[in-house]
């Protein structure tokens, strides 16, 4: 898999991530800044490092599973693993300009 293919797959993964919304905030998890890293290895195994808006987030159990399942629907993806971290802790500063605008913070 060449660099261009990896970039294409990365872009496709971002599109999938942008289709997943935080249930409490009408903004997708990517624009919210919950996705810290997306790694793709040469075998097309994907690892996503993400956080939640809070450790007590009501979807702490289901959101990572939803991310894994949706990313796995991409034909090129062999496997997907989601790791949750709270380091660094999520803050509103991590939201994209688009998310801040959507939520009236700008």
TrEMBL record:
InterPro entries: Fe-S_Maturation_MIP18 (IPR052339), FSCA_dom_sf (IPR034904), MIP18-like (IPR002744), SUF_FeS_clus_asmbl-assoc (IPR014291). It comes from the Bacteria. SUPFAM superfamilies: Fe-S cluster assembly (FSCA) domain-like. Pfam families: FeS_assembly_P (PF01883). Residues 11-84 form the MIP18 family-like domain. PANTHER family: FE-S PROTEIN MATURATION AUXILIARY FACTOR YITW (PTHR42831). This is SUF system Fe-S cluster assembly protein. It comes from Urechidicola vernalis.
């Amino acid at each position: 898999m060449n660099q261009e293919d990896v970039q294409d797959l990365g872009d496709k993964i971002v599109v999938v991530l942008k289709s997943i919304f935080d249930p409490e905030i009408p903004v997708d998890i990517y624009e919210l800044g919950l996705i810290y890293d997306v790694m793709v290895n040469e075998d097309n195994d994907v690892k996503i490092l993400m956080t939640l808006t809070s450790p007590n987030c009501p979807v702490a159990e289901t959101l990572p599973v939803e991310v894994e399942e949706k990313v796995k629907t991409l034909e090129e993806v062999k496997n997907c693993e989601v790791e949750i971290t709270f380091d660094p802790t999520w803050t509103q500063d991590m939201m994209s300009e688009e998310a801040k605008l959507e939520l009236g913070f700008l």
